[in-house]
Amino acid sequence: MVVILRHLTLENYGPFTKLDIDLGDITVFVGRNNTGKSTALEAIALLLSSINGFTLYAPKMSVDVLSGLGSRANYLINLRSNSNTAIISGDVIHQGVRRSVVVRVVRGINGLGDFRNGVMREVSNSIVELAPRSQEILMDAFRRVQKERGSAGNISEAFREFVDGVVTVLNDYVNNLLADAVFLSTYVDGELFNIALLPMSAVVIDDYVVGKLVRLGLSRGEARRLLDIQVSRVSEGRVIHISKKIDIKPVNVQHASLHSFLIDDLTPDKQSELIDLLRGEVRYFYDYRGGQVILNFDSGKVSVPYALMGDGFKALVRMLGLIVGGVDVAIIDEPEAHLHPGFMEVIVKYMVEPRFLDKIQFIMATQSLEFLDYLLDAAKERNMLDRIRLIRLYLLPDGDVDYEQLSGDEAYDESGHGWDLRG
Known about the structure:
By secondary structure, the protein is α+β, with helices and mostly antiparallel strands. The chain is built from 13 helices and 18 strands. It has helices at 37-50, 65-69, 116-128, 132-149, 155-178, 207-216, 220-235, 268-281, 311-324, 341-351, 354-357, 369-381, 408-416, and strands at 3-13, 16-22, 26-31, 55-58, 61-64, 85-94, 97-107, 182-188, 191-197, 238-242, 253-255, 285-289, 292-297, 300-305, 329-333, 361-366, 388-395, 401-407. The protein is elongated, with a radius of gyration of 27 Å. The model has no long low-confidence stretch (mean pLDDT 90).
């Protein structure tokens, strides 16, 4: 195994007050609706991406994790908690080296402690550094003000004073924005590695700020356009601080719900491996060439655009592509989606094959008992139950999420007795 996450702790993250679990080579979060399964996968993706600048890297593709969290920024910290901080932590074993990684989710820039001023300065600089279009707006406004007021004297000095007044308003505005913004800070082996500002997708231009700019001479339309342009520089989110002292290698992680998948994105050798698997498992499948699926019937070969193939076939291709694709960690939410029973059986058969399982850690979430039965039966047949962990999640009446950890053997025994593994 190249990279593996063996332990995970969540504190006040999403619906979890506390989650402290061990992970296996195959880990499955199982539970009924609204028990936090997808949130647990989100936390793992956030943790593993944090050492890559909050980007999930997989061969030929990458996904910015921060951009996907903007709409959820205010819900990352447990709403039932009085705390302004959530913590995700785990031990990442990378090329034989164990590193302790901690991601702190903090609401408000004051929660950054000693790093507050440095972050404030960097974000403020980005918002007050006027974009070309903003400069045009200010120049037009200044000319109009000069004409209306008939001002005389040093034009250059007057323009500097005008711009300084606008910059002061922008600085005050960004200070107010950051008071409620959500930040992520990553620590590797106890040392700060990076700080990121989450996107602020719900920023509403304050009429009070618009009024301050109007008093300086801008029209209301100019003031709003200026604020829209400048605030967009921070509302998209960004990694603010990266330590140059910590040397940690990138981790190849693919989140099936975040990464798009195209067969052509696979390297030629991985494409060949995928095609060989499909030939052995899918009746009539013969080949794939440049977006066309070649089917071999008794009457001859037929070429069909991949986009027109059924959802079940495309789901199988996506899952097998993930298995052969060469990632270190595969995160999969609802692996059973669009798969009919025969294809579920195919997927789990390859998941527990040592040639894949010795290279990939699978972390999944499901509420499909059928998928779990196929997985546990395949693992039993291969003597791989000891490499499986089930994390059973429960939603309690007070809104908290409780959990239970099961080994592969324990889960197999429960399933054999006809018990509902979802609890």
